[in-house]
Amino acid sequence: MEYKKLEMARKKKIALVAHDNKKHELLEWAKFNRDLLAQHELYATGTTGRLLEQELDLRSSNSRAGH
After folding, report:
1. Which long-range contacts (CB under 8 A, 24 or more apart) does 14-20 make?
2. What averages of pLDDT result for each successive group of 10 residues across the chain (67 residues)?
3. Which residue, 45, 33, 47, is CA-closest to 61?
4. CB neighbours of 15 closer than 8 A, spacing ≥ 6?
5. Bridge-partner residues for 44, per DSSP?
6. In angstroms, how far is CA 19 from the centroid of its own chain?
7. Which one, of 36, 21, 45, lies nearest residue 56 by Cα?
8. Among 7, 6, 8, 40, which Cα is nearest to 16's?
9. What's the pTM value of the predicted model, to 2 decimals?
10. Would you state the pLDDT for residue 21?
11. Residue 37 and residue 62: Cα distance in Å, rounded?
C-alpha cells in the first residue's frame, strides 16, 4: 500500500475527548503530537481541557469550564 503525506494548509479545529480511564493515554498521545496540536484550534471537555493545559500548556476552548 502506498502512503501519501498530506500537508495541512490551514488551521484545523480538533476535538479531544477521552473517557476517564483513557485520559492518560490521550495525554501521552497529545504530548507526542504537542507541537502539531499547538498550531490548531483545540476543543476539549472540561477535565480533559484542564489536563491538556496543566500538563502540556495547550489551551482548548473549554479548558476553563467550571471555573
Report:
1. 14/40, 14/41, 14/42, 14/43, 15/42, 15/43, 15/44, 16/42, 16/43, 16/44, 16/48, 16/49, 16/52, 16/60, 17/44, 17/45, 17/48, 18/48, 20/47
2. 80 93 96 95 93 94 57
3. 45
4. 42, 43, 44
5. 16
6. 14
7. 36
8. 40
9. 0.74
10. 95
11. 16
Single-letter residue type at 54:
Q
Reading the block at residue 28, the C-alpha cell is 501521552
Cell 498550531 -> residue: 39
Cα→Cα distances 44→1, 3, 35, 60, Å = 34, 30, 17, 6
CB 38, CB 11: distance < 8 Å: no
The DSSP element (H or E) to which 23 belongs, if any, is helix 23-32
Q: How close are the terminal C-alpha atoms of the chain, in Å?
A: 48
